[in-house]
Amino acid sequence: MSRVKRILKELEDVQKDTSASITLVLVSESDLSHLTGTFLGPPDTPYANGRFQVDIHIPNEYPFKPPQMKFDTKVYHPNISSVTGAICLDILKDAWTPILTLKSSLISLQSLLQSPEPSDPQDAEVAKHYLSDLAGFQKTAKYWTEIYASADAGKKNGGSDSSKDGDDAKLYGIDEATVGNFQNMGFDRAKIIEVLRRLGFKKVESGEPRTENKVIEELLK
Amino acid sequence: MPPDSVSNEKLESYDSDGSEVHIDSVEEEEEEEDFGSFEYSEEEEFPIDEEEGEELEDYDDIISNSESQFGDDFDIEPSTNGTTFTSGSSPNNGHATTDSIGNSRRGDEYSYGLTQGQFREESTSLVNSTPMKFKTYTTMDLIDKMHKQCRKLSEILVISQDNVINLLQFFSWNSERLMEDYVTDPMKVRKDAGLLEDSHDLTGVCTTYPKTNPFSCFICCDDKLTTYKLACNHEYCTDCYGRYVEDRLSEGRVIKCPDCDLTLQTRDIDNICGEGSSLKLLESSMKEYVERLRAFKWCPAPDCKGIVEVLNMSEVKDLVNEGKIPFVRCGSEGHQFCVSCLFENHSPAPCQITKNWITKCKDDSETVKWILTNTQTCPRCETSIEKNGGCNHMTCKKCRHEFCWICLGDWKLHGSSYYNCTRTGTKDQIITNENKKTIASTKESLKRYLHFYNLFSVHEVSTKLDMARCSVVQSTVRDLQVVSGISWIEAQFIADSAKVLLSGRQCLKWSYPLAFYCDSTPLLNIFENVQAELAMAVESLSKMFEIEDPAEIVEKKKEFIDDCGVVLLRQNAVLSCMKELLESKTLPDEAFILKKSVR
């Protein structure tokens, strides 16, 4: 029974805290093991002004076993899967101890956004982007925050991606000029982005005929 | 005492033990000459506990004598806790046998040798499996060893033993690194490992609260009466603390206070989780300890906790390259395993083949198992057919062949016996015919693999059944001994036969991967014939073990012994044929083996 008592106490604590940078609610009143938490993106990062939603499942062994958390909001971050929202964070795995709480875990996620660990990535592609082109990475992460985590992102998540030309390239952190170059050669925009993503290129300089040829080769297939 | 008389005495003592020695005469002759007077002592299994003192003297004699006889074939290894000597490779057949005597308290002494009781099955398998020099340990032995290491370090570093255990666990039992780091900056090491800065270690405090003023535990949010806290004053109820510690006992690492980096001492763990709990932690950290020591190997047999220290680790690579199997035998139950593959002794298949075979089986076995259990091949066009319901009268969609699902025979011959298939044995016929076909297409190659995999797994299953059966038979015979007064010696043939059966089965099992990787040549044909003969002999002996009535078993003693003889003979034949196969380069080289895949 200690688990129930503890979860209720934690809920109460978070709800008492009025600063509102963190929220925690039950998904359904009858089920204490499934919660939703949100927190604000840390200021001075590409995630600033975003509100990130986290899906929380509490195992039966809680608080001796860590809660299972994953992002509901799409995040562009080396330690978070850009596809599933899975999180790579030690305290949610073997570094968990029973004195940690849901609140402290959410705060840890907040600080994870602030200080990524690209050497221990969850999303290898994003980590590569982070390490090779920090400015490009930040641009993409900011763009993701805008379209997925901004105040009115909830309803925008689904269809808005392709509404504006340039969105898809930006979404995958692909250099707009590079896409333009290939478009000038007469290739289809969607195909160019698909190929560049598959090959893992964010940017192809015109001074690199080798990479350019490789992309063209793929495009012609 | 001259070695001659020692050995003769041994021989006599064995004879009076009544072990059946005549069966092993199979290969005796050719070795006798080379070993000369030394032979028996090499075959001797040294009694360890009872006659230690005397034995040691005797063997010292033998060593000095044999040294003069064989020169550098023997080397004596100085050992702190006993005398270890090895009788090296005999000049003619290149296999090494290792014996060691000792009186160590830990590091349980073993003696590896050819015993009369084991017949000659060891010797036959020695064609390509080479016993290593080794020492066996139990988990308790290792814990003693770990404690000893802690004592030593505690003296050197002038810190308490409890602290040393914590530090070693923190350093994953890398004592060199611990020493180095500790000498450079003891404070930093202590801090990193979560030990208090001063050397005197404080144990945590257990507090009992009055009912009127209970303790509110942060972890469970309940009011509790007993609590525990370390010097850091982070206090939790004993239930939560206990659960917290217990969860971590099996991880083999230092356990820290839930809220800070302070490490729990051995005594804290015992206080919280009960006496002896810290031992559990030590046991689990042994995994890292053993992995750190490259020469130490866990016995790969399921649930076996035996540990073996290989004394001549450096030779393993060469042996493997020569196609020999470096094997040891674990102390607790005598499991034989290959040090290189960490797999059961896979004689006659060399390590490389075994590795390929096992990877292959792992990759394909799920598919193969599905195919094997869910489909049959059409007896005419050999398409795999899955039966999804209905009667056993099958019509192949591809070639319109009508056949019986159960016996795969032509349906026309079945007449009116629709649902009761009476024709048995046809399936076996098909498999043996397949044997002779040459392999060409990929489909054929899959079939070929399936065929060998099937044989291999059949014998693997049989091995388990044989083991179970052998122990049942042995216990019934033991019961009979009590009732009818047959002497232990007279019943010993059962144990010996069981060993022969299991080793024959194992040899048979591992000969299939070997055959699988061989190119089809006349030599392979011969090999397969010899293999088939061994299979027959093994099955026949296995059948003997099916006899329920213990009295009948004792009556059939002679048949048992004869069957054993046949198994050993044929096992020998398989092994020597295998040797020829390996030497004749019928076996594709490594790269080829790796490329050869089912699909």
Secondary-structure map:
The complex is a heterodimer of chains A (221) and B (599).
Chain A: H1 2-16, E1 22-28, E2 31-40, E3 51-57, E4 68-71, H2 102-114, H3 124-132, H4 134-149, H5 153-156, H6 167-171, H7 176-184, H8 189-199, H9 209-220
Antiparallel strand pairs in A: 1-2, 2-3, 3-4
Chain B: H1 3-17, H2 28-35, H3 39-43, H4 52-70, E1 74-77, E2 84-87, H5 121-125, E3 129-131, E4 134-137, H6 139-157, H7 161-170, H8 175-184, H9 186-192, E5 205-208, E6 215-216, E7 223-224, E8 226-229, E9 235-237, H10 238-249, H11 266-273, H12 277-292, E10 296-298, E11 307-310, H13 316-321, E12 325-329, E13 336-338, E14 343-344, H14 351-374, E15 375-377, E16 384-386, E17 393-395, E18 402-404, H15 426-436, H16 442-484, H17 488-517, H18 522-544, H19 550-555, H20 557-583, H21 590-595
Parallel strand pairs in B: 3-12
Antiparallel strand pairs in B: 1-2, 4-11, 5-8, 6-7, 8-9, 10-11, 12-13, 13-14, 15-16, 17-18
